[in-house]
Amino acid sequence: MQFAKVSLPIDELQTYYDASLSEMGLVLSWVGVCGMVFAACVSVFINRFGYRRLLFLAMFLATVLAWVQVLLPPMPLLLATRLIEGVSHLIIVVTAPTLMAAACRADQRSMVMSLWGTFFGVTFSLLGALSPWLMPMGVTSFFVFHALWMLVMLVLLALMFRTDLIALPHPRPQISIKNIIEQHVQIYGQMRTVLPSLCFITYTALYVALLTFFPKVGGAGPDWLRAALPLVSLAGAFGAGALVQKGLKPTQTTVVAFGSALVAFLVLAVACQQGLELSWFKVATFFTLGLMQGAIYGMIPYLATQPAQQAQSISAIAQLGNLGSTIGPPLFGIAFGTWGTTGILGLSLLMPVIGLFLIVYFSRKLDN
């Protein structure tokens, strides 16, 4: 919701601030900058202060900043609050899923991680459904809704979450440049912690870019399509969890997901070439994107069995995921500007091919 509250009313925000497109792009993406730069450092702070304490701190910070943004402050101050908001976002997306994994049985963890992976789709669907009521009240209404939401979540956590679920290491590590460098080496030196994030970067490069550029492929389509795509991706994420519950290994589920995405984009390319109406083909591709997301998150507890390892894996996902969502739209923009629809479809086909190679090649090495 820290992204969606800006993304959905972005045209109205641009008018209010009399801002350029590049400035509005910064307002939207600034939250992700912290994750791209500092995600791998979070584990050091977690091991020092604890999961529960940091989660509460991040939720409190996010709530305060959300209420500040309700005032629609001047652009420099808004950008500053968005950058600090990125700190809260980063801590939440590392601590919350790790605690969720700790709160359930080992055989439930891949399904629970797939459930966690639906947060983007849930948010955009929810705010998209509420937009007809929020938009007439002005752009501030989106910020008010988010501020109230964060306040309610903070109170619920305080009431329901009294003790930490994960024991901290003894002695607790000191926060230093040396420990932060060692943390990076540990995360990116183990395929069990880094493989999900390597796959995830191909997903985020696709998902964020296609939400932007899909209307340029064969026309925007009917009005229901933009609202339906996030919902369909939710169904795909739950589908990945269901496959794991049926007995398929998370690594195998990821192969199925990337293979399905490749087939879906190939069919979309053929349909586009034939001049067919593309709405349902686009729906199918977003289902496979959800399948990819759910399967990747499901790999985390399967490959990294200890909470500390899981936190490291999620940190890598946050870092490379933000990198993917940062480089994806410009890449697709260049491809569209140079080769038109062919460029978008070509890049869309390339991403699942890369992901499929990564998961097949490296999961075999892990099995051996």
From TrEMBL:
UniProtKB keywords: Cell membrane, Membrane, Transmembrane, Transmembrane helix, Transport
Subcellular location(s) per record: Cell membrane
Pfam family, any one: MFS_1
GO molecular function: transmembrane transporter activity
Main location: membrane
Major facilitator superfamily (MFS) profile domain span: 1-367
Residue ranges of the TM segments: 27-47, 54-72, 84-103, 115-135, 141-161, 194-215, 227-244, 256-276, 282-304, 316-337, 343-362
Family matches, as PROSITE patterns: MFS
Membrane topology category: Multi-pass membrane protein
A GO CC annotation given for this chain: plasma membrane
InterPro entries: MFS, MFS_dom, MFS_trans_sf, MFS_Transporters
Protein name, UniProt field: MFS transporter
Organism lineage string: Bacteria, Pseudomonadati, Pseudomonadota, Betaproteobacteria, Burkholderiales
